[in-house]
Amino acid sequence: MAELSVEIAGLKLQNPFILASGIWGETGATLARALWSGAGAAVTKSIVEVPHGFINAMGLPNPGIDAYGEEVEEALRAGKPVIGSIFGGNAREFSKLARRMEGYGVQALELNLSCPHAKGYGAQLGQDPDITRKITASVKAAVRIPVFVKLTPNVSSIATIGKAAEAGGADGIAAINTLRGMAIDLELGRPVLSHGSGGYSGPGVKPVGIACVYELYGAVRIPIIGMGGISSGADAAEYLLAGAAGVQVGSLVHRSRDRTFPRLCRELDRFLTARHFRSPRAITGKAHGGP
Ligand code: RRO
Hints:
The protein is of the alpha/beta class and about 290 residues long. Helices cover about 35% and strands about 15% of the residues.
């Protein structure tokens, strides 16, 4: 049997599988459930600063940072790393949210510079290397915990953005967020989503994620957490070979819930053991050649 534990930017994980932001992480109870069921760590829903109540323009309602402390507290009871995802419109907002999240006790932060459909947020910031570097540097100056920057694939050079995050002091990169996508309702003859476009995820995006991780591995020295379309242990192995130190899983959890993480661990273990690899780390980046 392989030893599945990994260490990413100082975070010790029992296995390399991390619950991705936004799928099952709306509340402390669901985050804890993902962790109890076997995830190595979990990322919260991207939390924004809202003056009062809820924002519904995004895919999921958002309790805002003020209400989120209790949720983090509940998730932390599972005894595994919780990564706080935050979502702001500029460096000042990100830094403020980062301090609040750190105060809630999360073990790391993930900066959402990559949501494909939020005006003035997400990818609109993360498509610009200067803004990416400045926001990352500002958050790094505000907190002591590791900071991961989550990137969008909707750019001409993800390596350029990854290098900018690294230059800003990021401890790691998370890639990829969803692709911008749209579906048309054939009866109504209008976009299915009232917003028009939304974030496309699931098995179809895996080759895009793999290509991004592969490119980033050649461009940065900090660890990469890969994601996009992972449905099996073999898919995870593909990400590790491309250069990921760990992986996140989103859409699959939506379907398989509690069964997701134990199956992925079993399958990755089988993959590694059959090839006489002792750990996920042993295959990280191997697709790039070398010994
Ligand atoms: O909440 C969303 O609709 C959303 C976010 Br914040 C994101 O980063 N990516 C995505 O596909 N959806």
